[in-house]
Amino acid sequence: MVAEVAEKLVYLGIDDLPAAASLLYQSYYDDPLFERLFEHTKPDYEKRLRAVIREDLAAYWNTEQPIIGLFDGATLKGVACLTQPGDSFGPGRYWQWRLKLLLTAGYLSTRQILEKEKAIQQALPAEHCHMLAFIAVPPRYRQQGLGDLLLAAVKTALRESPRSEGVAVYVTREDYLDFFKQRSFEKINELDVSGLAGELLWFSRERLALEGLHEL
């Protein structure tokens, strides 16, 4: 289980979602992709971003997708959200989410988000895989190795899901690209989303097996 990776790594419950939403907002507020998707120059950018993050977390919870939290005592310091193998990621996912997204983000942002998910889904190297939708540590808690703990939990989720062939993540920031590539994620495609270049990275089950051998 994820809790075996570190004592303070847990699957979040429904009561933890407000704290997780606040943490994700802090972490993604100035992310270039989110700024493009949600038109950060508009005065209601913050309101729409908060609303979309809340709806995303609610959708993950309602469809039983893994939401991993990293606690220091009662303080939530990191979050990682995964979609499990199957049809839970992509532009066709649950119509209730699409409707709420339209109401909270607006037509243009909704269209761009669905186009992003379609492009990513078409570029995935395997039908059955995990997608790392969010991984976040707020700025004040960074440089403490917390990102590595979250990523270890993600790899544990992969290990415990025999049906999954790997974990994919879409990245647009150079510092995040460096983080993942230094941890055995490999570039498999370049994608342009809303005029912003990014890379689709992949961590395969085969790579996970190799890491397991190195630990023996």
TrEMBL record:
The keyword Oxidoreductase does not apply. One of its GO terms (molecular function) is acyltransferase activity, transferring groups other than amino-acyl groups. Residues 105-163 form the N-acetyltransferase domain. SUPFAM superfamilies: Acyl-CoA N-acyltransferases (Nat). Pfam families: Acetyltransf_1. Keywords: Transferase. This is GNAT family N-acetyltransferase. It comes from Idiomarina tyrosinivorans.
